[in-house]
Amino acid sequence: xxxxxxxxxxxxxxxxxxxxxxxxxxxxxxxxxxxxxxxxxxxxxxxxxxxxxxxxxxxxxxxxxxxxxxxxxxxxxxxxxxxxxxxxxxxxxxxxxxxxxxxxxxx
Length: 107
Prior knowledge:
Elements: E1 11-20, H1 27-39, E2 44-51, E3 56-63, H2 66-74, H3 76-89, E4 90-100
Antiparallel strand pairs: 1-3, 1-4, 2-3
């Protein structure tokens, strides 16, 4: 498995950096479900994700436009997972939303 993209700019990248709490607490199953849900959002382009053994994780979701981001943010199961995340899964997290002006790659 490798990185997704590149995509035709402009598009948006939503970067979610987090530090996990110990234990799973249903995190894995919820993450799998959220991946299914976000894939169905019109305008979702793809996602890259990585986690260190120490719990630091970075997930980058790529979206065609701000409407697609808003649709994902408004998804009821995603909202519920965000609430659980603050209570159970994350010591801390940061979200960055950026407009991508240039995108290229190599295989």
